[in-house]
Amino acid sequence: VAWGSSLSSEEISRLKPSQKHNHLPGWDSLNNKATLGEVARTHSSRGSSLADNVPLTFVLPQHADELLAHHRRGGGPYIVKPVGGTRGKGIRLMTEVSDAFLKERRRLVVQQYIMNPHLLQGRKYDLRLYVAVTSSDPLRLYIHEQGYGRFCSEEYDLSRPQDLHITNSNFQKFHELYALSGSSSRTRPAGNKWHIDIIRREWEREGNRGVWERIKTAITKVFIMFKVLLKFSSRGVAASQSSCFSLFGIDVLLDDQLKPWLLELNSLPSTGTSSPLDIEVKTSVINDLLHLLGLV
């Protein structure tokens, strides 16, 4: 298995049947935060429902006028992300769209902030889930049953600074109440990360059934939305697709109506571990992926 930087088309064409590479040709474009928003906007403009689970997104500087118009109609607040940012770097909340901000002419993704998140124990959370894609034509994807929720350290309170409610661990780890899960136990919630099994039981305890199926449908719709782009990107190396695969980390937020919102796709999700929960989930994901690929 060649795991790491993308190989060239020529290198991929030389792979033997027993050799695998963790980048489907052309799919690295999905790691760019702007791509999801741009493709979703295209589908929305055509009346497609495939983009219904992607928050309204503006990519600057090209959508600066549209963002300003949306803000003047009462839109916002927004979450701002650098196009190529990772690990929470440069993420911030924005309530006002100023002329000075728009004149900076930087490549940024500005996404409608979901103000009404679903809460557990009064706290906002999002989900990190994993999807393996083994072919783009035909599209073949597998959604892993494991994952985890990333929780804010404080209860959700709109009167408090909104930065406190960014679920990214790189923000929360500086909070005095932040705590990694000390155990991978699936029987009780602990710390700022919960196993997906605990979260699913909490949904059912509240009488919310069918949430997991809705999430899987939303993820599938987004990958179908990308299918034309991905098919075009991998043209010319289709014969080598059987040697390639991609593993995606998907960030999902639920609103208070239990509607899933896909915030981000990461084609190079971290496989590092900082807690027993990380070890359990990520080991399972990688182990199952290698078996899925037929590697002994």
What is the structure about, briefly put?
The protein has 296 residues and is α+β, with helices and mostly antiparallel strands. It has eight helices and ten strands.
Structure description:
One of its GO terms (biological process) is microtubule cytoskeleton organization. Keywords: ATP-binding, Ligase, Nucleotide-binding. It catalyses: L-glutamyl-[protein] + L-glutamate + ATP = gamma-L-glutamyl-L-glutamyl-[protein] + ADP + phosphate + H(+). This protein is α+β, with helices and mostly antiparallel strands. The N and C termini lie close together (11 Å). The chain contains 8 helices and 10 strands. It is 29% helix and 22% strand. Strands 5, 6, 7, 8, 9 and 10 form a 6-stranded antiparallel beta sheet that branches. It folds into 2 domains: 9-32 and 115-292, ATP-grasp fold, B domain (D-amino Acid Aminotransferase, Chain A, domain 1); 56-113, 2-Layer Sandwich (Dna Ligase, domain 1). It has helices at residues 9-13, 33-45, 64-72, 99-102, 169-172, 196-205, 211-233, 276-292; strands spanning 57-60, 78-82, 92-94, 108-112, 119-120, 123-136, 139-151, 193-195, 246-254, 260-266.
